[in-house]
UniProtKB/TrEMBL annotation:
Belongs to the GIPC family. InterPro entries: GH2_GIPC, GIPC1-3_GH1, GIPC1/2/3, PDZ, PDZ_sf. It comes from Lipotes vexillifer (Yangtze river dolphin). PANTHER family: PDZ DOMAIN-CONTAINING PROTEIN GIPC2, RGS-GAIP INTERACTING PROTEIN GIPC. It comes from the Eukaryota. SMART domains: PDZ. This is PDZ domain-containing protein GIPC2. PROSITE patterns: PDZ. Residues 117-184 form the PDZ domain.
């Protein structure tokens, strides 16, 4: 008598059938196999730089969204935030928050403090200022050259937000536009700057949270959160030491030739040139991606030299 294979029992509903086939369901009756993978939760600790309790922020993709989150934590307006520093409450331009945040970085928000109006006599072509911006419409002073015109005006400080030049409001301007405006001011004439300095407190260490010092969290990770003006933020590996040094040199050249410092712009320039074979190809790539800057040929050539050395 031939053997007969036992036929599988038919089930009355699809849910029971899925269970027999080994697929689990969730409490709501949906298939777990079809659920999206859980997203990584990134939480950052934050304080106001002049002193505050510690708060946390998460779920942001741009600088503007981050400022809004911080403002919500401390119940202030986002427009009060001038810029943020990482891992220090001091006005340290080497620790400015840019487009990348280390996953273990502690964020300090510097808010508007004293307003001041300063008259400056432009006796030389160069004022000795390096300008940057916060990515959300506020330009400020990143560096003052020793012995320069501005260095002699002690009421002008590194970290001051430039609110207006000769009565013209520059809110929303990028740093290169502000630098150009200052460069175009006539020599041997007086001009006026309206400035806002960040609110300051006595030197202080970051306040601990849950028994742990925030300084103990600094510099221990190799990943960063890259913020974007459009689209979601992404987690990236830190650049290699060689690449990081090259980008730093490009940033130095930006200051030398353009009077600005912008590590994100320097990174964009490095990325534009890393796969190019010669200076001409690099110059074309810069025109396509950053044509509005009108970089001088000498600058482009020097940047190409830095990229070539890094290769």
């Amino acid at each position: 008598m031939p053997l007969r294979l036992r036929r599988k029992k038919k089930f009355n509903n699809k849910e029971t059938s899925r269970l027999v086939e080994g697929e689990q369901t969730n409490a709501a009756g949906g298939s777990l196999a079809s659920l999206p993978a859980p997203t990584r939760r990134l939480v950052f600790h934050t304080q106001l730089a002049h002193g505050s309790a510690t708060g946390t922020v998460e779920s942001f993709s741009s600088v503007q969204e981050l400022y809004a989150k911080i403002a919500s934590v401390f119940e202030i307006s986002p427009s009060e935030i001038l810029y943020c520093t990482l891992n220090t409450p001091k006005v340290d331009m080497g620790k400015l928050l840019g487009a990348q945040i280390g996953l273990e970085d502690f964020i300090f928000a510097h808010v508007k403090g004293i307003k001041k109006e300063v008259n400056v006599y432009k006796s030389e072509d160069s004022l000795g200022l390096t300008i940057t911006d916060n990515g959300a419409g506020y330009a400020f002073i990143k560096r003052i050259k020793d012995g320069s015109i501005v260095d002699s005006v002690k009421t002008i400080c590194v970290g001051d937000h430039i609110e207006a030049i000769n009565g013209e409001t520059i809110l929303g301007w990028r740093h290169f536009d502000v630098a150009k405006k200052l460069k175009e001011l006539k020599k041997e004439e007086l001009f006026t700057l309206k400035l806002i300095e960040p609110k300051k407190a006595f030197d202080m260490e970051p306040r601990p949270k849950a028994g742990k010092s925030s300084t103990g969290r600094i510099g221990t990770g190799r990943e960063t959160l890259r913020l974007r003006s459009k689209g979601p933020a992404t987690v990236e590996e830190l650049p290699s030491e060689t690449k990081a040094k090259a980008i730093g040199k490009v940033d130095d050249l930006l200051e030398l030739y353009m009077g600005i410092r912008d590590i994100d712009l320097a990174t964009t320039m490095f990325e534009a040139g890393k796969d190019k074979g010669n200076p001409d190809e690099f110059a074309v790539a810069l025109d396509e991606t950053l044509g509005d800057f009108a970089f001088p040929d000498e600058f482009v050539f020097d940047v190409w030299g830095v990229i070539g050395d890094a290769k």
